[in-house]
Specification:
Strand order of the largest sheet: 6-5-4-7-8-9
CATH class of the largest domain: Alpha Beta
Number of helices: 10
Structural class: alpha/beta
Mean pLDDT: 84
Largest sheet: 6 strands, mixed
Distance between the termini: 37 Å
Length: about 300
């Protein structure tokens, strides 16, 4: 609540009338109390201006509270930001899939490659409506699908991928990351990359620390959760200043990958000003309507 403030603070000036009304009520009630010491109560109720009812909650009290709540709502209390509904998600996620022979290992069922495809499909479902792309690499890197919001076509293209389609065996991860950076720049959007691989050549760590340095790159280890993480993957993640996401049997890994992509989206909206303060005044409307309903009672008047 450290960021609590009012979006339209000038409406708080409308509190002055309700303050005067409260002072008037207090003065009137004080006057009645003063006479109570000199005149019997059963006679005083006929002499004072009012309805003579003993109810502690009176229409004037409710009106003051409604005025106070209404002014508070109009002033626009706010303490957190939200993405503007008039702005599109202009960030992209480039999926970089390793397509070498080692990805056909069956230490995870049905195979490392098939499990990676499952993860891609699940991640795309979480990112529905956001732009994604797919790059594969082995001895060289190749673009399979440019940035698109059509999740189904990326999943379909990924289904048919096997190491046999690659021209050569190898570990051209740096080339794939450069291709991802170029893809995002040509599309004119910011974004990040997610590498899905079972290993990384440890000798690439130094190069990976500097290649496309401005592009956030995250890593999802496609290997058995019970196996120790690949040293090359750990070095690559450390070189890029990020964490290594360990593959899980449930969706924890995909959720984490999506969170990292979302953090990039929020950073981008902060930079371009498309994020705005959320107006919490709307949440007070039901209380205002409920209080106003008191005037539907017979004889209820100020």
């Amino acid at each position: 609540m450290a960021d609590f403030h009012f979006i339209r603070p000038w409406f708080l000036l409308a509190l002055l009338p309700v303050l005067l009304a409260v002072l008037s009520l207090l003065r009137r009630e004080k006057a009645g109390s003063a006479w109570l010491g000199m005149i019997d109560a059963h006679l005083l109720k006929h002499l004072l201006v009012g309805d003579g009812k003993s109810s502690r909650i009176k229409p004037a009290h409710v009106l003051c509270v409604l005025w106070l709540v209404s002014v508070f709502a109009l002033a626009g209390p706010s303490w957190r930001k939200q993405a503007s509904p008039f702005s599109d998600d202009q960030t992209g996620l480039v999926l970089i899939l390793k397509l070498s022979g080692s990805m056909e290992a069956t230490d995870v069922q049905p195979s490392r490659l098939e499990r990676a495809k499952f993860k891609i499909r699940d991640l795309l479902k979480m990112r529905e409506g956001a732009a994604s792309a797919l790059i594969v690499y082995s001895g060289s890197a190749h673009l399979v699908m440019p940035l698109t919001k059509d999740d189904a076509i990326i999943s379909t293209m990924a289904e048919g991928l096997t190491p046999a389609v690659m021209p050569s065996e190898g570990d051209a991860l740096s080339e794939a990351i450069l291709a991802a950076e170029k893809l995002l720049k040509e599309a004119g959007v910011s974004g990040s990359a997610l590498v899905l691989a079972d290993s990384v050549d440890p000798t690439q760590a130094t190069e990976l620390a500097t290649v496309a340095a401005d592009l956030p790159v995250h890593f999802l280890a496609i290997q058995s959760p019970q196996s120790p993480s690949d040293a090359g993957l750990m070095s690559a993640a450390k070189a890029r200043g990020t964490e290594l996401i360990v593959m899980s049997e449930i969706a924890e890994d995909v959720i984490r990958a999506n969170d990292l992509a979302q953090s990039k989206m929020l950073a981008a909206t902060n930079e371009d000003g498309s994020e705005r303060w959320q107006d919490a005044g709307y949440f007070l409307l039901p209380f205002i309507v409920l209080g106003a309903g008191c005037w539907s009672r017979k004889g209820w008047r100020c």
